[in-house]
């Protein structure tokens, strides 16, 4: 559906995108995820034809569109700043986009109505953007991008700047609309929760390069590099050298011995072992299992649907644990933390 092949973009001496290749199948929702400045917007703009890549090709539905102007690409775009015209009504904003794409007056009215119905905003057609909330403006912006049935929808951080509750609501809403319309979508964000919650696949970008490409599950459960492990999701990190012990392999980190899965690198290798907070169990009494360590509860913060506990081990190392909403622990409790060997990610 969309193929990006060997994209490179230099701004003077600065390499913003570095030999980036990926493809998106028809109907897929793919997210470019990475920190600010890693080249996400540049990539999106190059696909749209708004920025000329220094090297590389863009293919859309099998056709090479690299040298086509933006208006010949049949691409729909929406941004964080919605770029709606403030002096036009919602209806006029959407109609304007359709006129730009060559639709007749007769077609336009129907398409405006259909797209407003799609985003649940029919009653706002005569409002000006300034009379709408941020979330409503994003809906209109999406309606405008979808009204002419683009081959691909490009979204650049559309939820950044909305408050947290609205952001979460918009995520599931956006994904629902995308599935309903079946539009192929490339979404750009620095927010890992956006990426993990909506995408079929995620491209993790670092300094203009693809660091890892895969499903949200794969990116989260099997990161291939420390960058991905640390950028996507929380974890506690134990750094040390792999050693043999009791027929298995361990890493000595501070005064502890962390037992590693069989797939760990050979003894002598410097590694970091990552443990996700939801894989850490907390108990008052020891269970005498492998990878169990005593500690003290330093902090408990309620995250709404769960609690995050910070536990200080006897060597001063702090460990994050996610528990049920109301854990039966208090700050200062002496506890044991434990995690299973096969949940340890070794990189
Ligand atoms: P992101 O969207 O991931 O935050 P961008 O693609 O906007 O990253 O930018 C990537 C890099 O390219 C940054 O270092 C940014 O400062 C630089 N950059 C982006 N646009 C321009 C431009 N028009 N001129 C010069 N440098 C730019
Ligand atoms: Mg950007």
Strand % is: 35-45%
Let me know the average pLDDT: 92
- Give the bound compounds: adenosine-5'-diphosphate, magnesium ion
Mind telling me the CATH class of the largest domain? Alpha Beta
Shape estimate: elongated
* Sheet with most strands: 6 strands, mixed
CATH homologous superfamily heading of the largest domain:
P-loop containing nucleotide triphosphate hydrolases
Count of helical regions: 8
Number of domains: 2
Helix percentage range: 10-25%
Uncertain runs are none
Cα distance spanning the termini: 34 Å
Strand order of the largest sheet: 6-7-8-3-9-10
Radius of gyration: 24 Å
Write the topology of this structure:
Elements: E1 2-11, E2 14-24, E3 29-33, H1 40-48, E4 55-60, E5 63-64, E6 75-79, H2 90-100, H3 105-118, H4 134-146, E7 152-156, H5 164-181, E8 184-189, H6 192-198, E9 201-206, E10 209-214, H7 216-221, H8 226-231, E11 236-245, E12 248-253, E13 256-260, E14 270-275, E15 281-283, E16 292-302, E17 307-313, E18 318-323, E19 334-338, E20 345-346
Helix pairs in contact: 2-3, 2-4, 3-4
The structure holds adenosine-5'-diphosphate and magnesium ion (MG).
Describe this structure in words.
With 347 residues, the chain is α+β, with helices and mostly antiparallel strands. The protein has 2 domains: 230 residues, Rossmann fold (3-Layer(aba) Sandwich); 111 residues, OB fold (Dihydrolipoamide Acetyltransferase, E2P), CATH 2.40.50. The strands form 4 sheets. A 6-stranded mixed sheet has the order 6-7-8-3-9-10, sandwiched between helices. Helix 2 runs parallel beside helix 4 and helix 3 packs across helix 4. The protein is elongated and about 75 Å long. The site of magnesium ion has 2 residues, from helix 1.
């Amino acid at each position: 559906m969309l193929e990006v092949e060997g994209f490179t973009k230099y701004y003077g001496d600065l390499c913003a995108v570095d030999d980036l290749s990926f493809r998106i199948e028809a109907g897929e929702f793919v997210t470019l995820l990475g920190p600010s400045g890693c080249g996400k917007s540049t990539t999106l703009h190059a696909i749209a034809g708004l920025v000329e890549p220094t090297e590389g090709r863009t293919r859309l539905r099998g056709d090479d569109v690299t040298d086509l102007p933006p208006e010949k690409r049949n691409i729909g775009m929406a941004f964080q700043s919605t770029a709606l015209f403030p002096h036009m009504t919602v209806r006029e904003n959407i109609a304007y986009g359709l006129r730009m794409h060559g639709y007749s007056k007769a077609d336009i009215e129907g398409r405006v109505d259909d797209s407003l119905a799609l985003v649940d905003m029919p009653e706002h057609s005569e409002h000006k953007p300034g009379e709408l909330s941020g979330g409503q403006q994003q809906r209109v912006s999406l309606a405008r991008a979808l009204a002419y049935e683009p081959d691909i929808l490009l979204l650049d951080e559309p939820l950044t700047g909305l408050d947290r509750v609205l952001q979460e609501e918009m995520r599931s809403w956006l994904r629902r609309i995308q599935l309903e319309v079946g539009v192929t979508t490339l979404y750009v964000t620095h927010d890992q929760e956006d990426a993990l919650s909506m995408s079929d696949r995620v491209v993790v970008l670092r300094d203009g390069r693809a660091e890892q490409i895969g499903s949200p599950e794969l990116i989260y459960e099997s990161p291939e590099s420390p960058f991905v492990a640390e950028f996507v999701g929380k974890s506690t990190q134990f750094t040390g050298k792999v050693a043999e012990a009791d027929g298995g392999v361990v890493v000595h980190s501070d005064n502890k011995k962390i037992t590693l899965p069989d797939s760990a690198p050979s003894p002598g290798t410097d590694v970091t072992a990552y443990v996700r907070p939801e894989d850490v169990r907390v108990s008052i009494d020891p269970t005498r299992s492998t990878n169990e360590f005593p500690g003290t509860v330093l902090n408990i913060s309620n995250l709404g649907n769960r609690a995050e506990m910070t536990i200080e081990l006897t060597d001063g190392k702090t460990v994050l644990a996610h528990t049920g909403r109301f854990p039966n622990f208090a700050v200062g409790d002496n506890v044991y933390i434990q995690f299973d060997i096969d949940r340890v990610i070794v990189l």
